[in-house]
Amino acid sequence: MIIADLITGKFIERPNRFTVLFNTNKKIDKAHLRDPGRLKELLIPGIPLLLRPARNTTKRKTKYDVIAVLNRDIWGFINSGFHSDIAAELIESRLVDEFKGYSVKKREYTFGKSRLDFLLSNHNSIMLLEVKGCTLVENGLAKFPDAPTTRGKRHLEELMLAKSEGLNAAVLFLIMREDAMEFTPNWEMDPDFSDTLTDAYKKGVEVVAYSLKIFIRMIF
């Protein structure tokens, strides 16, 4: 995936869940942050941000969107708006072994009481797929979630229901940093989600985790 028209800035503070203040060229401005996580280990005052000018500012208060943050010399993607597109590219390009042979039949597929990210299909079966973005990595170990998520727990319950009805079901964790070597549910942060993920795995829901590397090329 190529994202153009990027600029850099330095993080100042996060006054609320969806807004950050940043400094660039000695000017303080606001940017929209589209990531539900706490990100406390990433958003440290003075740390570099990668931002993109907003496409349409007529109905919003911010002129920029936060794309990534530089932490420990590694760019970490912190914009959940791209997760679905990234997952679709991975599926259609056959880069993920667990989804080879499948193609995207429908995005945002309603099942039970939830809207799941994908309905996939191949010649013989269909699969329900939910995608989660993971940004918390400690000493090579990726952990999800970094904040309690009742919505995430509900998605797993829907996937287990689909599995019980004879459908294939999977959850894909996109680890948005390249330094992750292993993945684990974050038991300390959200034991309910972690217990449900373990139960889902035992009941046949595929749990897939891949770390991604962000390439930044500056063009002058």
Biggest sheet strand order reads 1-2-3-5-4
| CATH level-two architecture of the largest domain | 3-Layer(aba) Sandwich
In what range is the share of β-strand residues? 35-45%
What order do the helices and strands follow?
A: EEEEEEHEEEEEHEEHE
Based on Cα principal axes, name the global outline: globular
> Which CATH class of the largest domain?
Alpha Beta
H/I helix tally: 3
Account of the protein in words:
Helix 2 runs parallel beside helix 3 (191-202). The chain has 220 residues and is an alpha/beta fold. The chain has helices at residues 83-92, 150-164, 191-202, and strands at 7-16, 19-24, 27-32, 48-53, 64-71, 74-77, 103-111, 114-121, 126-134, 136-138, 141-144, 168-175, 182-185, 206-211. The strands form three sheets. It has a five-stranded mixed β-barrel. The chain has a five-stranded mixed sheet with strand order 7-8-9-12-14, with helices on both faces. It folds into two domains: 7-77, OB fold (Dihydrolipoamide Acetyltransferase, E2P); 80-211, Trna Endonuclease, Chain: A, domain 1 (3-Layer(aba) Sandwich), CATH 3.40.1350.60. 34% of the residues are buried. The chain starts with 6 loop residues before the first strand and ends in a 9-residue tail after the last strand. The model has no long low-confidence stretch (mean pLDDT 91).
